Amino acid sequence: MLRNLRELAEDILGTDEPATLAMIESGHVPAPVLIGNRIARWPTVALDKWAAGGCPKSDPPSASDFMDLRVLIATEEAERELAAGLVRSPERIARDEIARRELEAAEAAEDRRIEAQMSEDFADFDPAG
């Protein structure tokens, strides 16, 4: 079984993702296996072996490898959120903005229509009697 960063952090280490990334960067947690140079995963077999060995420190990844890992993880997270509808694509943002502006314009026109109707209805009203 393969674990993603969130599962590694929450289920195995009991930490949050930033703390887990810091542990990976310092070599306190093994670096992931890269699948197709696009997906970072931690095999549970390797994690079990690491834990059974007393969680030994390993050589930390190079700065460029670690930055590549952070980019992969951020990209994967963004793609997952987009697919789940948690974030909006630029096209969706533009469509939503156009719809919002059209709704505001329609509401403003309706407000003006109601005010004009009220002015007409109460044009002859004399509050004094």
Fold and architecture overview:
A 3-stranded antiparallel beta sheet has the order 1-3-2. It is 63% helix and 8% strand. The N and C termini lie far apart (85 Å). 8% of the residues are buried. The protein is mainly α and 129 residues long. It has 2 domains: 2-83, no CATH class; 88-122. The protein has 5 helices and 3 strands. It has helices at 5-13, 17-26, 44-52, 63-83, 90-121, and strands at residues 2-3, 33-35, 39-43.
Task: Give keywords.
5 helices, mainly alpha, 129 residues, 8% strand, three-stranded antiparallel sheet
Query: How would you sum up the major sheet?
Result: 3 strands, antiparallel
Tell the overall outline. rod-shaped
Order of helices and strands: EHHEEHHH
Work out the number of β strands: 3
Structure annotation, total helices: 5
Q: What is this structure's SSE topology?
A:
Blueprint: E1 2-3, H1 5-13, H2 17-26, E2 33-35, E3 39-43, H3 44-52, H4 63-83, H5 90-121
Antiparallel strand pairs: 1-3, 2-3
Helix pairs in contact: 1-2
Short description:
Helix content is 63%, strand content 8%.
